[in-house]
Design goal:
single chain, alpha+beta, Immunoglobulin-like, 5-stranded antiparallel β-sheet, 4-stranded antiparallel β-sheet, globular
Length: 290
Amino acid sequence: MTLRQTVGTVRRLRIEHATGFTYPGDVGASYNEARMLPGSTDAQFVLSSQLDIEPSTSVNYYTDYFGTRVAAFDVLAGHSALDITSRSLVEVRPRPIEFADIAWDRLEREAGRSIATVEMLGQSARTAPHPEVADIARSIASQHTDPGRAAIAIAGAIGDAVEYMPGVTGVHSTGAEAWVERKGVCQDITHITLGALREVGIPARYVSGYLHPSAHPEVGVPVTGESHAWVEWFGGDWQGYDPTNGSEIGDRHVLVGRGRDYNDVPPLRGVYAGPVKGELHVQVTITREA
């Protein structure tokens, strides 16, 4: 697998993410958290961002344990719909992979020194690998003296083995369940990859964000985008890779949050008082501005 080293380009993306619930009748008070606002990093700069909520309510903004921006809000009056729309303008640079000079024994020592890496070594119910995935990961790792190159090979093998197909799995599916089907969405492929990397002692974390669907988007043309997920692994430093698309993290990826698995970074989470079940709606629109 050949990795392209891309430097010097900056892309400006405008993202509108609308989501929420429609209920067949009024529900009582609801308590919610939204993780839909990108944050600035060394590879992306947030020029503007806002969150609009209907019914209108006050919002408490904070940064969670893993560094993700969170908007917490309550709707205390009865309501038949809840609509949340995030609007962001972000400058994004490619994040080419850089391989550190680190061997397996040194990685083990360094990973054990920090809570940030130790927490990304443990498996969760979503990432615990299928035995076949564990075997694949161990086999590939045994062929590499460099954990970083092993991570790329493992992520690439998982991405090649699992067909991207919406509708086969659900939001609560585990990586092991998706592996049995060999089909799933980016969330599933990311969970499988996390389990494989952690199996061989490589700290790895779940990344949520957005992806512009076109490799060469036209300026000023809004397109239907999507929430997306990819992985970052630790090999002396944190590096990212998109196993669903078999690519480095480029100027089409906009990072929103990080965590141990999807449970740490859902775009919208909440509870409400009422006997009726709401219908979820989601629409993401991405426009290249420059």
